[in-house]
Write a structure and sequence with these properties.
Length: 219
Amino acid sequence: MKEVLEQLKEGVRRFRTEVHEENAEAYRRAASEPQRPHTLIVACADSRVDVETITASGPGDVFIARNVGNMVPAYGEVPGGVSAVIECAVSALQVRHVVVCGHSDCGAMKALLQPESLTAMPTVKRWLNHGQAALQVAESLRAEAGGNLLSVLTEKNVLMQLAHLKTHPSVAGAMARGELTISGWVYDIGSGEIRIAEDGSAVFEPVLPVSVSAIEAAG
């Protein structure tokens, strides 16, 4: 296992000599000023989902909570890390937007569809109860989904977690004052495409490259 640590060390060296050195001024500012992230992103813990990269964010731009299945427990249940992050981001850091980001080929969504795969992981099984309502909605659409049930569940889960998000007093208050907006994202790992359902919409629209957006607008 020592080779894994060595691989990580090599990554640290490259970060110091390449990434950090090339962005030295941004890191100096981040170290000398209080953090002022504009967005909280609740994303899946999947190692293929690199939140900072897909949003082209720098140090201090986004506050991030990651967990299995990008779940947001409804307020009032046993307090946990996700709830604490939400409260901190909205009340203390005063982020202006919150994203719940799901992704393609999500292992958590596959586990919801195949609960027998969780027999040896009782903690994960309990955690994924936060996605049961989304599973019921997706199952009701099984006939319409055809072979895309996993994709349907991924979208419905993001929408359900947005509904849970709104039960948090800090979020509800900030939204009522017009200080906060929220959105749901689905990131396709293979293509790089991100589709967004803005607050109030259940439809995920792709974020198009600037050139494509300009052509469509002109047409």
